[in-house]
Model the fold of this input.
Amino acid sequence: MAETIFTKIIDRDIPADIIYEDDEVLAFNDINPQAPTHFLVIPKKPIATINDIAAEDAELIGKMYLAAASIAKEMGFEQNGYRAVMNCNPDGGQTVYHIHLHVLAGKAMGWPPYQDALKQDLP
Ligand code: AMP
Done:
């Protein structure tokens, strides 16, 4: 897999506002926040997309959600709520090909998440 900017953050080759780290997972604030709180939870193991997650990665993916919930509790927004979302490939809006969980909080979010949603688009 080609090295991404997130590998450079893991290796401390470029700076990031890191808010959580353990042996397998790293979390840092998004450089272009889309909500009052917006951070990314990434595995240290490089996995390009959701499609590249292997069965052996199942526990690692679970640990990403555990880290997200733990940070949410520590930051005090777990009861108000938040959105945790992972984009996949171009139609999903993925731009960095190292999987990452976006965690967005601090405001009530609408649904659906895309602005051009029209009822006639639905099956
Ligand atoms: P996605 O479009 O789902 O692949 O999300 C990639 C996210 O990474 C975007 O929200 C970017 O703002 C964020 N991002 C890109 N480079 C950095 C960086 N150096 N530090 C923090 N966040 C970044």
Summary: The pocket of adenosine monophosphate is lined by residues 5, 16, 28, 30-32, 40, 87, 93-96 (CB under 6 Å).
